[in-house]
């Protein structure tokens, strides 16, 4: 994660190797998304950059989309904390998921397990700007959905996460 946002001109000046080096981690441990997004290069504006990442995910085969979703960490899960992308760590910390009470942690664990058992993927939500209470509420609302509905919802949430991350990395 870089500190100073790049200009769109700097992004457009990148070759494919530099682009993947800069954005290969934007989609949780899935550099293929940046590789596919590069096909939209050069980008007319920030919206076109975001759209290229979204299109890369939308055009991917179901198996690649499923693998992308499964790369996302459980929210408030401590077991994989060392494996989280830096941005995932920051996003979860910003939502207060590092300051859960024992009861809240138990609730997140129960919800994560129930969600994975029902849907076969982790619960994914763009947590930037959310509170832990809002996240738990969303968990409870989405848990009863069908696996097909949640697969589509998870892809939408991944696209939101990518948009937020690109907003942080590239000046609009």
Structure commentary:
With 172 residues, the chain is mostly helical. The chain folds into two domains: 8-66, no CATH class; 74-166, UraD-like (Orthogonal Bundle), CATH 1.10.3330.10. It has nine helices and no strands. Helix 4 (46-59) runs antiparallel to helix 9. The longest helix has 23 residues, at 147-169. It is globular. The relative contact order is 0.17. The model has no long low-confidence stretch (mean pLDDT 90). Its EC number is 4.1.1.97. Pathway: Purine metabolism; urate degradation; (S)-allantoin from urate: step 3/3. It catalyses: 5-hydroxy-2-oxo-4-ureido-2,5-dihydro-1H-imidazole-5-carboxylate + H(+) = (S)-allantoin + CO2.
Q: Any idea what the shape is?
A: globular
Unreliable stretches (pLDDT < 50, length at least 5) are none
Helix content: 55-70%
Name the helix and strand elements from N-terminus to C-terminus, one letter apiece. HHHHHHHHH
Counted up, domains total 2
Mean pLDDT across the residues is 90
Please report the number of helical segments.
9
Q: Proportion of β residues?
A: under 5%
Q: What do we call the CATH homologous superfamily of the largest domain?
A: Oxo-4-hydroxy-4-carboxy-5-ureidoimidazoline decarboxylase
CATH first level of the largest domain: Mainly Alpha
**End-to-end span in angstroms?**
17 Å
EC number: 4.1.1.97
Organism: Kaistia soli DSM 19436
Protein name: 2-oxo-4-hydroxy-4-carboxy-5-ureidoimidazoline decarboxylase
InterPro entries: OHCU_decarboxylase (IPR018020), OHCU_decarboxylase-1 (IPR017580), OHCU_decarboxylase_sf (IPR036778)
